[in-house]
Amino acid sequence: MGNVTNGNVGIYEPRSMSKSFDKNMPVTTFLRDMFFGAVNTFTTKKVDMDFRKGKYLTAPFVAPNVSGINVERTGYKTNEYEPPTIAISRPITEEMLNDRQMGETIHTTLSPEDRQQAIIDKDMLEMDNMITRREELMCSELLSNGIINVRGYLDDNLENYIDDNIDYGFGQKTTLETTEKWDESTSKKMDDIKSAVRQVRKAGYNPGAIILGTDAYDLLEADEDFRKLLDIRNFSIGELNPQLSFENGNGYTFAGILKGLNLPIYIYEAWYQTIGGTVSSIYPTDHFTVAPKNLGEMLYGAITQLEEDKRFHTYEGTRVPKIITNVSDDVLKHRLSSKPMPKPWDINSWATYKVV
Asked: Strand 263-268 and strand 209-212: pairing?
């Protein structure tokens, strides 16, 4: 006789609860940590910042009997930033508090209040992870295109939205054409990498890493001419030594160092789920980026929200929680908000190639 008959549990037959399996997908912060590790929070929605970019000015000679030559000063400009808003929430109803939770036995000692706190804790962790993935995707979009797409949804159905872009004016992206593409035998992969390195150095920075999408790395590793360069005995241009590193769940592979350029090689292999349900790569698989480390910071604008005291309050921070209650309908909703935006110090400090 089975334990369940006509939807009823047989109370006279012993039962056991196996250990539950609750899988959380990795949350990767490799790009954010390497390139935008500094954090700056504000008490306002918008942030103004002054920029001054130096030039390669060279002192002129003066002719005899000339006391001096006036030289220009480099001016500055002011940019205004308004980080976009993220606000995600989950409701809690009475039915949820009276149902058995995952891993809980039918002879439980948990009260509805205990389940409520457990649900809130789990939801807050998952919502925080969702915001972190969005931050990482914003960093990837900035590095690969210089433009962050901001699609603001108008309802829970995620069908109506307003599209906007944060355009940083990035001008150092190269899209390879025809015979230059890395899947062509006529491609010159090392020349492309050297060109990206020189762009960064020309802007006044020392490249700290090359980040490759998975397809770009596979094509580089399989290139016969590139492998020959690695085999030259008396001229060590580099070495490939793939080491998978999931430290802190960051899902990148350290592949080695291009010694001739003193450039560490990283393959970034991490994913996110789109609104439509498709699992996509966070960093474009057919791109590579050469960049210095710590090229910018993460900005977080202030969150203003109405609280139970019937007054608006403004909070400064990376995450701002809120509990929303509807006492008459016995519904509670908890929300987590953030206004993140990666900001580079110098938009010319890195170079990106689309190789396929």
From this structure: parallel
